[in-house]
């Protein structure tokens, strides 16, 4: 007959053996994990002078943590206070007007219909405020004619300004009906009014300049940028206007920075062109 003391000793021995078995299993898993890590570390991919090493958390790692936690007595010490995440930066611009971009496409550049000697003003009514631009029809007739045509078709209405740069180059880019940086009106037209590069290969694009974005010579479409701070660029981008009102609106957008905090990305503010008009 097994006495009570013998039964207690047997249970203690079995508990000890189970603990040893768990620890041995955990040790084996850690050894296997370390072997895998060592093998991965031996194959380091070097790209652009930088080395990248990725180590994934496996289910074995999770099991090890569970086993170790089971052998650790609960602590009577209070846990360290958690640092709250930084408060989200508020957005201050208004909600966009109801509606969506037309995304209409046109087969060819519109026929010339503007008075190249006339004075034209483009008005951008944005969710962040109104911006007025004096257009230079004499020096950039094709560009101003295209903007007058597209504005008349409400092509720019409800489109989002998709890009903001704040480091070195300070511009807000708009005019893409898709909001991706790849959209346009379906046609392209020539470069105009290009300046001359200085000794460093760049030309001045002062704050308030409005110019065309492009993907190479003669690829102007509908995307344009507003210069929010004095910038230098290769003289490859057609300047066709100057901000005459609302520079404070642009500087407010620039001051809010990008959504991800980088120097080049989507604006933090939701900048949408509710309407764009061109008038003589």
TrEMBL record:
It catalyses: [protein]-peptidylproline (omega=180) = [protein]-peptidylproline (omega=0). Residues 129-278 form the PPIase cyclophilin-type domain. Residues 69-80 have a biased composition (Low complexity). This is Peptidyl-prolyl cis-trans isomerase. The chain crosses the membrane at residues 36-55. Keywords: Isomerase, Membrane, Rotamase, Transmembrane, Transmembrane helix. SUPFAM superfamilies: Cyclophilin-like (SSF50891). The keyword Cell division does not apply. Residues 11-24 have a biased composition (Basic and acidic residues). Its EC number is 5.2.1.8. It comes from the Bacteria. PPIases accelerate the folding of proteins. It catalyzes the cis-trans isomerization of proline imidic peptide bonds in oligopeptides. Residues 25-34 have a biased composition (Basic residues).
């Amino acid at each position: 007959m097994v006495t009570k003391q013998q039964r207690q000793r047997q249970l203690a021995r079995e508990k000890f053996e189970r603990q040893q078995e768990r620890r041995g299993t955990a040790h084996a898993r850690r050894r296997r994990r370390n072997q895998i890590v060592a093998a991965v570390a031996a194959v380091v991919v070097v790209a652009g002078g930088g080395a990248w090493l990725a180590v994934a958390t496996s289910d074995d790692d999770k099991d090890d943590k569970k086993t170790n936690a089971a052998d650790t007595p609960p602590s009577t010490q209070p846990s360290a206070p958690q640092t709250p995440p930084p408060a989200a930066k508020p957005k201050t611009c208004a909600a966009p007007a109801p509606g969506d971009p037309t995304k209409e496409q046109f087969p060819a550049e519109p026929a010339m219909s503007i008075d190249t000697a006339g004075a034209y003003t483009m008005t951008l009514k944005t969710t962040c405020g109104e911006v007025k631009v004096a257009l230079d029809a004499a020096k950039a007739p094709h560009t101003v004619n295209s903007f007058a045509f597209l504005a008349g078709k409400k092509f720019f209405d409800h489109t989002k300004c998709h890009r903001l740069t704040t480091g070195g180059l300070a511009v807000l880019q708009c005019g893409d009906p898709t909001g991706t940086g790849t959209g346009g009106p379906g046609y392209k037209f020539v470069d105009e009014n290009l300046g001359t590069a200085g000794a460093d290969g760049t030309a001045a694009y002062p704050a308030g300049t409005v110019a065309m974005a492009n993907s190479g010579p003669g690829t102007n479409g509908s995307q344009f940028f507003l210069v929010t701070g004095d910038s230098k660029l290769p003289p490859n981008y057609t300047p066709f206007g100057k901000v005459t009102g609302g520079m404070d609106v642009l500087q407010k957008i620039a001051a809010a920075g990008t959504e991800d905090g980088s120097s080049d990305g989507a604006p933090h503010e939701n900048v949408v062109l509710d309407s764009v008009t061109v008038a003589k």
